[in-house]
Amino acid sequence: MTQDLPSFENASQPEGNSSTESYQLLVCVSAPLAIFGFVFYAVIFCLGVFGNVFVICTVFRETKLHTPFNYLVINLAVSDLCVFFVSIPIVVFSECFSWPLGELACRFSRPLFLVFTGVSVCTMITLSYERYRAVVRPLAPKLTRKIAVQIIGLIWILSYPIFGLPRFFMFGLTTEKGILQCDPVGKNFVHHMAANTWRIICVLIVPSVVVSWAYVRVMRQLKQDLAVIGDTFASQDMTRSRAQRNVKTMRLLITIILVFVACFLPFNMVTSLNALSSYEQWQYNETVESMSRMSQVAHSCFNPIILCLLSADFRKAWKKLCAFGVKGVKGRSKVYVLPEIQQTDSSIPLVLLIQVCKISV
């Protein structure tokens, strides 16, 4: 059974009235794998939501980060959040409960994970091309924030036809043990292989080739620029600093694409084997598919970690956030209430006044 997100195998249901069974919760795979998967996805969900929200808030809070490049970084974070709040709930519900919506909603909603993945892929390609134009063609018109927003809108519009439409015709309503489910229904070998090949080309091959090409061209140009700057006067320090920042940016982009490929390659390799009858009969096929899907979903929490590790601006924002949290905790812990002192006719001793003044609040 080929899926794009965490898949669950129906356990045997007790025989009885089909109307009663339609409201039963389906048991998900084996108990150990179900428990591990629940804990894994819970951790990934918390890390991914916190990290991506942190990236979005950091860019909007810091005025100097209001650049076209960081607007595209926000788009990466938004696509990852859509995976957590849209794709995963749809797939978990469709696999564990009776599908309440019609077939059209089934066909439209199930490929959404691949659509959000396509948004990330197109955004990474745009980021790489933006750095390529900025370094290799410095006299070309620069990417403005308005154009960046328009590109982001175009990416979202085109992602479903490019990435989701081939999967649209592979899903439909099926019945398992009296439970109505939204599952893949296309068993045609040619259609299956064509859809998988198209997905591998769009999700893995094209972004890897484009980002690698842009990385090689940019690094070659920056190496030449740094060599020329090294032979000139010290007045070129600003140009040298700009070139070094571009080097760090390209290393950031190449790290993002490498992590992306590492997370998505196992699942795409596994799904390519689903058309083989020998693989379907293999007793560990469900376990392998579940682990590969976990790797695929885990990617949605890695981009914020990479940004905090390799981007100086996001590291500063993270340190500022941590410092603010520590300061807030310390401020709350240093709240003392002075004991009430009964006033009498006699004057307060001078020593007592000194002790009261030394109390730190």
Tell me what the structure shows.
With 361 residues, the protein is mainly alpha-helical. The chain has helices at residues 18-21, 31-61, 68-96, 103-109, 112-136, 145-168, 189-230, 237-272, 277-280, 285-298, 302-310, 312-333, 350-357; strands at residues 171-176, 179-184. Strands 1-2 form a two-stranded antiparallel sheet. A hairpin with a 2-residue loop joins strand 1 (171-176) and strand 2. The longest helix has 42 residues, at 189-230. It is globular and about 70 Å long. The chain starts with 17 loop residues before the first helix and ends with a helix.
Apparent shape: globular
| Rg (C-alpha, Å) | 28 Å
Q: Please give the largest β-sheet.
A: 2 strands, antiparallel
Unreliable residue stretches: 6-28, 332-361
Q: How many DSSP H or I helices?
A: 13
Cα distance spanning the termini:
64 Å
Please supply descriptive tags for the structure shown above.
13 helices, single chain, mainly alpha, 361 residues, two-stranded antiparallel ribbon
Sequence-ordered SSE layout with sheet pairings:
Blueprint: H1 18-21, H2 31-61, H3 68-96, H4 103-109, H5 112-136, H6 145-168, E1 171-176, E2 179-184, H7 189-230, H8 237-272, H9 277-280, H10 285-298, H11 302-310, H12 312-333, H13 350-357
Antiparallel strand pairs: 1-2
In a nutshell, what does this entry contain?
Helices cover 71% and strands 3% of the residues.
